[in-house]
Design goal:
By secondary structure, the chain is α/β, with parallel strands linked by helices. It has helices at 3-6, 26-33, 50-59, 78-90, 102-117, 189-208, 214-230, 241-261, 265-277, 281-296, 301-310, 320-337, 351-363, 376-386, and strands spanning 15-18, 38-42, 67-69, 95-100, 126-127, 137-141, 153-158, 163-168, 176-179, 344-345, 387-388. Bound molecules: fe (ii) ion. Fe (ii) ion (FE2) binds next to α6 and α10.
Length: 389
């Protein structure tokens, strides 16, 4: 019997509505959840946008009281989630609505975990450590990248150790994702670029993950095709709603894939770098991606050939050596077209700092599903290539 028939795979997703103005269905869903005191977990920067105010105006008639929690920084910290959970409980809230990018939605997930399980958020690091489901959670993503609105992942920074901790559990999958391209129209261009590269990385890492399956493959490949077609258009001044919809759909499909197939070395190394040096997640991934493709390629060349086809490359009858160079060229040209640099500058980078980054990357749960096991030395060399003093 083929090995794939003996490997059990699960596939978990929330209820999803995607399309222009999907966010405006929020009032109807508050009634479905019979919620009276929702907490909105969001970014301060979003609250002046018209689309944000429209959304909030549709919530007010359905509730007795509305609370806002926006004390969140990029790469959200454990103490921010703990403060949010304290507030949620002390105000007797009954629903969480996360409106934002990955930071706001991840923080909302962590608030929900602590609100029903107690303890410290860091107690739940790892796979399937969350026992009780949280209060109902609705995600309205405002970037096309993290897919936190559909995923089983919540990433939170351990502020004492300066490490990003991954909480992976079906208990953190939101109940509903309202996925609307309208907020993307007002998104900063560089944030658009970095978050879109994050989504592409999700799809590529899910496709070559050691726990990929037929159900995740189909979403990963379609995501790569969609993102490849629109990623450069999405940062143009004249970007259209059609372009941003395609990018959002690509990001969603990447989310469905990686949430169920997990990720790989790009994310493991990016979590480690982003946690210690407080760097933007999408930027770290964009810079690491070409290096990890190069080191992983030999282990699963046929899967990279499938990826290349989705990137629009003519790779029939092309040698593996040429195939790898064609993929790298496309990824590098994409990164350059999006004005994302090849390196990250770190002042006074010490050897001990790199050693700490290596150790944390090797311990990250995403490293487990990378198609090949990376050695300490390999990880150190890649950090040496991407970090500049
Ligand atoms: Fe990511």
């Amino acid at each position: 019997m083929p090995k794939t028939l003996l490997e059990l795979r699960k596939f978990v997703i929330p209820e999803i509505i995607i399309g222009v103005d999907a966010r405006l269905l929020i009032g109807r869903y508050i009634s479905h959840f019979n919620a009276k005191k929702p907490m909105i977990v969001t970014d301060k920067a979003l609250q002046n946008f018209e689309w944000f105010r429209d959304t909030i105006d549709l919530i007010r008639p359905h509730v007795k009281k509305l609370f806002f929690f926006d004390d969140i920084t990029p790469n959200p910290k454990d103490h921010e989630a703990m403060r949010g959970a304290d507030l949620f409980l002390s105000l007797s809230c009954d629903l969480i609505i996360a409106i934002g990018g990955g930071s706001a939605i991840d923080c909302a997930k962590c608030i929900s975990i602590v609100a029903s399980n107690g303890g410290n958020i860091l107690d739940y690091e790892g796979v399937d450590e969350v026992r009780m489901p949280g209060p109902p959670l609705i995600g309205i993503p405002t970037t096309a990248g993290s897919s936190a609105d559909v995923s089983q992942f919540a990433i939170i920074k351990d502020s004492a150790a300066h490490i990003k901790r991954a909480i992976i559990s079906k208990k953190v999958v939101p109940d509903l994702a309202l996925i609307d391209p309208i907020p993307l129209m007002s998104m900063d261009r560089y944030l658009t670029a970095c978050t879109a590269m994050d989504a592409l990385t999700h799809a590529i890492e899910a496709y070559v993950s050691s726990t990929h399956s037929a159900l995740t493959d189909v979403h990963a490949l379609e995501s790569i095709r969609l993102i490849n077609q629109v990623i450069e258009k999405s940062v143009m001044p004249q970007r259209s709603i059609e372009t941003m919809y395609e990018l959002m759909l690509g990001s969603l499909q990447a989310g469905l894939a990686f949430s169920n197939a997990s990720l790989g070395a790009v994310h493991a190394m990016s979590h480690s770098m982003g946690g210690l040096l407080d760097l933007p997640h999408g930027e770290c991934n964009s810079i690491l991606l070409e290096h990890i493709i190069r080191i992983n390629f030999e282990t699963v060349p046929d899967r990279y050939r499938d990826i290349a086809r989705q990137l629009g490359l003519s790779v029939d009858n092309v040698s593996d050596t040429l195939l790898l160079e064609m993929i790298i060229n496309r990824i590098v040209s994409m990164r350059k077209n999006l004005t994302i640099p090849a390196h990250i500058k770190v002042e006074n980078l010490k050897e001990s700092t790199v050693a700490y980054l290596v150790e944390n990357a090797l311990n990250d749960p995403c490293m487990v599903t990378n198609p090949r096991i990376l050695t300490k030395e390999e990880v150190r060399i890649i950090y040496g290539r991407v970090l500049q003093t």
